[in-house]
């Protein structure tokens, strides 16, 4: 069958092995000093390993490949002495894929209800509709990105702005990160892959007022340019005391 699956450029790969733990299914191993996809049916094609390759040696391609087989993955993990995928799955969870609890892909159904005047903030419903949300962990081909409005938010923004869920996140997909502390190159590659693989309808960048956080805006603009897509970008600046800046 023709489907999306990872491919590894052996010339670029230096055998660092960072992609191995990033693949919850155990589909990637270091063989003769190079990362290799050991079996097509062990790869779900979601690309959780993309952001972990410092050499940009891993890509997602469409080709003829065996269908992803979760039972084969469980058997493979069992032989490797690791828990099967099902052992990691929070129960019950709808539409879950993947293995590692931190990167296990999930979509949630949310029904937002009008809030009564004076209701405490802790009683407001979450508008989060997916997992994971950290940009290094989100798979570029995750179904929650399809035809989505995407929020790219600085880590601090949801803590500073109390109405983040209601006023910004509602009905949208989310990716978060810190342009100061994390690898900007990996962020750029991941965001570009998300834009290339999906028809993202809009990109909202939520950043803090501190100067280093504006790197998130430059990253978003570069990713849109590199993706070749025409995606409108909106920016929202959050003050360190939680107010929105003009």
Task: Please characterize this protein's 3D structure.
The structure is a single chain. The strands form four sheets. Strands 8-7-9-10-11 form a five-stranded mixed sheet. The protein is globular. It has helices spanning 19-22, 70-79, 85-88, 157-160, 164-169, 184-197, 215-227; strands spanning 2-8, 28-31, 34-37, 58-64, 106-107, 130-131, 149-154, 173-177, 202-208, 233-238, 244-245. The protein has 246 residues and is an alpha/beta fold. The relative contact order is 0.12. The chain folds into two domains: 2-85, Alpha-Beta Plaits; 124-245, 3-Layer(aba) Sandwich (Rossmann fold), CATH 3.40.50. It comes from Geoalkalibacter ferrihydriticus DSM 17813. Residues 83-103 have a biased composition (Low complexity).
Gap between N and C termini: 51 Å
pLDDT averaged residue by residue: 85
The share of residues in helices is 10-25%
- Low-pLDDT ranges: 87-99
**Strands ordered across the widest β-sheet:** 8-7-9-10-11
Structural class: alpha/beta
Sketch the topology as an H/E string, one letter per element. EHEEEHHEEEHHEHEHEE
CATH topology of the largest domain: the name is Rossmann fold
Which architecture of the largest domain does the CATH hierarchy give at level 2?
3-Layer(aba) Sandwich
Shape assignment: globular
Which CATH class of the largest domain is shown?
Answer: Alpha Beta
Largest sheet: 5 strands, mixed
- Number of helical elements: 7
Rg computed from alpha carbons, rounded to a whole number of angstroms: 19 Å
Number of domains: 2
Number of strands: 11
Report the β-strand fraction as a percent range.
15-25%
